[in-house]
Amino acid sequence: MSKHKARPDGLAYSTNSDFFNNYKEENAEADTLPVEKQRLRVKLDTKHRAGKVVTLVEGFIGTISDLEALGKQLKTKCGTGGSAKDGLIIIQGDYKERLIVWLKGMGYKDVKGTF
User: Fold this and answer.
1) pTM of this structure
2) How high is the mean pLDDT of the chain?
3) Which end of the chain is more exposed for a tag (fewer CB within 10 A), N or C?
4) 51-76, pLDDT tens digit by residue?
5) Angle at CA 101, nearest 5°, toward 66 and 31?
6) Cα-based torsion angle of the residue sequence 44, 45, 49, 50 in order, rounded to the nearest 10 degrees
7) Number of helices (H), then strands (E), in the chain
8) Is the pLDDT of residue 15 over 90?
9) Residue 37: which of 65, 61, 58, 73 has the closest Cα?
10) Cα dihedral angle (27, 29, 34, 36), rounded to 10 degrees?
């Protein structure tokens, strides 16, 4: 087993110095869309959580820091724990209806609950 981690594209070595500059530009963070243009989906989930219910908010397009800030606001409003990673906000517990109302109140126009 190799100790070295491979890059996602499988490249181990290249003499082309321009390749690495282009690779960094492709993986740059996207700018955060304005609140009114975001399309968020709120749903309940129990998969891989030992039967415990969590509320997921998905579809956020923006920087990681903005995602974490929104996640922190929602966790504070619900008074519960959770996390924000991989473009997904996870809130512990069943807060689907409350989150939809709060997100619409915060200015997010296209917020839908899915089942």
Assistant:
1) 0.72
2) 83
3) N
4) 899 999 999 999 999 999 999 999 99
5) 20
6) 90
7) 3, 5
8) no
9) 61
10) 60
Angle, helices 64-78/96-105, rounded to nearest 10 degrees: 120
CB 81 within 8 A of CB 55: no
34's tokens: 């304005």
Classify domain 35-113 at the CATH class level.
Answer: alpha beta
CA distance 25 to 17: 14
Phi, psi of 44 (to 5 degrees): -95, 150
Q: Using alpha carbons only, what angle is made at residue 2 by residues 25 and 5, rounded to the nearest 5 degrees?
A: 15
